[in-house]
Amino acid sequence: MCLSTRLVTWAIVSTDDRRRMSSDKAEYKRQETELDELYQEIILDHYRNPRHKGRLSAPTASEEGYNPLCGDEIILDVEVTDGVVSDIAQRGSGCSISQSSASMMTEVIVGEPIADVKGLIASFTAMMRGSDDDLEELGDLEAMAGVRKFPVRVKCATLAWHTLSQALEKAKSS
Ligand code: ZN
To answer: What is the number of domains present in the chain?
Structure first.
């Protein structure tokens, strides 16, 4: 089931049905729908205009991740300078969730110290497992929380992050 199915379902509920709903319930539903739309916009924007797409000429480490459930593939090049992720590039192919998650990830981690990046990886994967503890820290990445409604797609969202974790391990020993 794709992310937009719920929106479409909501859109085809007749106006009369909506009027019959208590105003509180309708308002709650409206806000929820708007949130979904906002999140979809963020995800689709990253899918259509991926950030840090490509490869680095001299990466400290490269790592490839594959999600057999969906066929998603992500290849990351990371450059680590003085304990900071000084540059990153990503490429690959797969569903919009996997590719946009990779794009969003590169945008937030470039220029960050490795310790902070590791904290972010932990927070993001915790969110995808159902935790709402670190939503503030995660900012726009919260858009991916909508994917939790489709458990089989969670691996799409976390693929880039697991791959990054492995790339950082490699960078440490290089
Ligand atoms: Zn996928």
So the answer is: 1
**14 CA to centre of ligand 1 in angstroms:** 32
More confident residue, 26 or 2: 26
- The per-residue DSSP string of 9-54 comes to HHHTS-HHHHHHS-HHHHHHHHHHHHHHHHHHHHHHHHHHS-TTBS
pTM of the model: 0.81
Which domain CATH number covers 63? 3.90.1010.10
Site of tokens 């945008």: 107
Q: How far is the CA of 19 from the centre of ligand 1 (A)?
A: 37
Domain extent, residue 145, equals 1-174
